[in-house]
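Field guide to reading this record: the first block holds the primary sequence, the second block holds the structure written as discrete tokens, and the final block holds curator observations. Each block starts with its own label. This record concerns Lytic transglycosylase, catalogued under organism Bacillus cereus.

BLOCK 1 — SEQUENCE
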Amino acid sequence: GPGFISYALARGGYSEETAIAFSREHADENRAGCKDPNNFRTKVGACYGDYTYVSKVLKYYKDLGCVADVSGEWISDKGWKWPTKSGRITGTFDEIHASKPHNAVDIGAMTAGKPGDPVWSMEAGMVTDKTGNVNNGGLGVYVDHGNGIVSRYLHLSKILVAPGTMVTKGQIIGEMGGSNYVGGILNMFGYAVHLDFQIRINDQPTDPMKFFKKNDDPGLSSGGAPTMTNA
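BLOCK 2 — STRUCTURE
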């Protein structure tokens, strides 16, 4: 409906993660949708409407032209590695979330709504003591790469490294999920499944897309580039 359309457009276009998030926000309007514990809606806490409706319709189109299926070999002009296999951007750095700048890039799962995609460190560094439960970010990993550069990975379903651990570029540090942490309570289904990826330089949030550029832009040393999803 028009309510969801405007909601999706404000978040860069349709994705199943966006549909799940919209359904969760309107759950009080249709609690009956989650009466059956085995229902697909109940399993992800999306009680309002059918969050799979648009994806079912899109199956009738041969070419969606919007999802990158890659091996995670995108390398930035600084030699940093894109942190997961998916290149489906579901949220941009400049978006406003709850009246505040997003200051990160959201990357959808390879299979929309399915947790577990491996997440790796973009560069060698040390896992910091901020790693663990992150307020409004769920399970998160912070890696200090030196020279004032820190990368952040939020909403994970699993953390696979401990604070103080040295990691290499491309080393798996966690698995993608939709976790959130508010008021001392960890909710593994607080968000639609995605990776919130941020780079901080001298403690200033910096858009990762400034470093991971399109194929025809200068600075990309190998591989393809992430694309904004619009379907």
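BLOCK 3 — OBSERVATIONS
Residues 88-228 form a domain with the Glucose Permease (Domain IIA) fold (CATH 2.70.70.10).
The mean pLDDT is 79.
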